[in-house]
Amino acid sequence: MASFLLAIIYISFISLGLPDALLGGAWPTMHNEFGVPVSYAGIISMIICMGTIASSLMSERMTKRFGTGKVTAMSVALTAAALFGFSASKSFIMLCIIAVPYGLGAGGVDASINNYAAIHYASRHLSWLHCMWGIGASTGPYLLAAAMTKGSWNLGYRWVAILQIILTAVLFLTLPLWKEEKSFGEISEKTKPLSIKEVFAIPGAKEVMAAFFCYCALESTAGLWASSYLVLEHGVSEETAAALATLFYTGITVGRGISGFVTYKLSDKNMIRLGQIIIAAGILLIILPFGGKTAMAGIVLVGLGCAPIYPCVIHSTPAHFGVNKSQAIVGVQMACAYIGSCFMPPLFGILANNVSAALFAPYMALILVVMIVAMEKLNGIKSFVKEQE
Q1: Distance between CA atoms of 25 and 31, rounded to whole angstroms?
Q2: pLDDT digits 0-9 by tens, 197-235
Q3: Which of the 8 DSSP states describes residue 355?
Q4: Looking at residue 291, what DSSP letter applies?
Q5: What is the pLDDT of residues 9-64, one digit of tens each?
Q6: Which pLDDT score, from 0 to 100, does residue 236 have?
Q7: Residue 372: how many CA atoms within 13 Å on its side-chain side?
Q8: pLDDT value at position 204?
Q9: pLDDT score for 185
Q10: Which residues contact 98 (CB under 8 A, 6 or more apart)?
Q11: What is the pLDDT of residue 379?
Q12: Is the pLDDT of residue 181 over 60?
């Protein structure tokens, strides 16, 4: 039955990724329909992000009270309802209101299920689970495109909502399977939820938060600005640059599939280091004055380097901090990740607009250096888990 539960978790990650690219794909039509500027997509994105931060910070309290299975099922149900709300929206204000439960649901799934998988499954499964997220995120735009040929963007959101409802039903039906995995639940019930101040007081917590913030800042900056950088600095055609942006995320997805096998030989710590080395090589190729093709190769290499870092940081959290504290740590990690994804790409946009888009590679390099320093400081803290036990 444990294998069946793992399969459910894999499906959950595909479902988690399905809606992520819908807004970007549908917005060119949506903003005209609602009569708002194209830039207003950023408002929706920020509201969703704020919701995910809030639910990530509440994840430990919710998981201790209801258990991972129920939190996951309720969060997916909330996301499904929000997606149906998007499909029925008639105004921009309505979209803004519905974005709140969408963000809360997405963050609840992300924090709870990542921690559960980190505790109960091997590192390779974290890599493959996040590979499944990439498959879901890549499939969403195709569903949207198919829906738009048959009707409108609303239908695309409705299709994904229906898939989420089916998953919700499966999750509620399989709640007894989650109860079989008692080790986390039994430990959690004996401890009270930690406050944010208490989380940051744990040795190593500041370091892992900084590292996770930097990783997600780098990934989201590369994903958002790679195409614009190639167009502005290397004269690459907009069509070619757009295709390459897709390859960046494809590189992450394929890289996570490969990383799952590499974890048989390398520890989480060394997987993270390997990813950082590959990212550094990619940034170097972008900096070298060899033209657009070299920069393209560098961007794809950055995507491949990003692949193992997120899942391996998550998987190593219980080992670094102990099972008792891992949900609290993962919840705050997720909040830091969303903050990095939310604010650092716009900051580069300001730099590109007021200074130069050529700062793209140095900006990522600076973030990478801070990430490496934070992770190595964390790795240098050897005994605090045992001390706390």
Answers
A1: 11
A2: 888 888 888 999 999 999 999 988 888 788 788 888 888
A3: T
A4: -
A5: 888 888 888 887 788 778 878 888 899 887 787 788 888 888 888 888 888 788 88
A6: 77
A7: 14
A8: 87
A9: 42
A10: 82, 85, 86, 89
A11: 87
A12: no
Q: Give CA–CA dist 107/335, Å, rounded.
A: 9
Q: How far is CA 185 from CA 67, 69, 105, 218, 376, in A?
A: 7, 11, 21, 34, 31
Cα separation, 327 vs 184, in Å, equals 10
Q: What size, in residues, is the chain?
A: 389
Q: What number is the average pLDDT over the span 112-139?
A: 84
Indicate the domain borders of the chain.
2-176, 198-380
Q: Is residue 144 a contact partner of residue 22, using CB atoms and an 8 Å limit?
A: yes
> At residue 101, does pLDDT exceed 50?
yes
**What are the tokens at 385?**
């888990």
The pair of three-digit structure tokens given for residue 305, joined into one six-digit string: 């380097």
Look up the CATH architecture of domain 198-380: Up-down Bundle (1.20)
pTM, rounded to two decimals: 0.80
Question: How is residue 342 written in tokens?
Answer: 């939310």
**CATH among 3.50.50.60, 1.20.120.450, 3.90.550.10, 1.20.1250.20 for 2-176:** 1.20.1250.20
Alpha-carbon distances of 237 from 228, 233, 265, rounded to whole Å: 10, 11, 41
Residue whose pair of structure tokens reads 């900096």 in the numeric block? 287
Q: Which of 306, 289, 320 is nearest to 367 (CA)?
A: 306
Residue 152 scores a pLDDT above 50: yes
